[in-house]
Amino acid sequence: MITKEKSSGLMLLPCKPDVCQECAVDHGATQPHNNQSLYYQYHFYAKHQRFPTWKDAIAHCDINTRKAWEKELRARAAWTEPHD
Questions:
Q1: d(CA 65, CA 67)
Q2: Is 9 within the bounds of a domain?
Q3: Distance between CA atoms of 26 and 83, rounded to whole angstroms?
Q4: Range of the structural domain that residue 48 is part of
Q5: 4 belongs to a structural domain
Q6: Cβ atoms < 10 Å from Cβ of 58
Q7: Which CA distances in Å does 11 have to 21, 26, 43, 45?
Q8: Contact, 53 vs 82, CB < 8 A?
Q9: 54 belongs to a structural domain
């Protein structure tokens, strides 16, 4: 007898109301999401069917913040962006 498994999906508990609702970290609205946050990774995955990159995490920031973060992340060989 062959059985077929069905994915149950992933459900995240809500994060605390006083932290960023995207990454569950307490950071200023103009600062990047924490790309290392498991909450952010799975919250993003649920929306986009892929894991986030640092480019995604800084996308909502102003241009100067994006440039500064990208520069520092590249200097540390940590910069990531989506594959085409």
A1: 5
A2: no
A3: 29
A4: 17-84
A5: no
A6: 21
A7: 15, 22, 9, 11
A8: yes
A9: yes
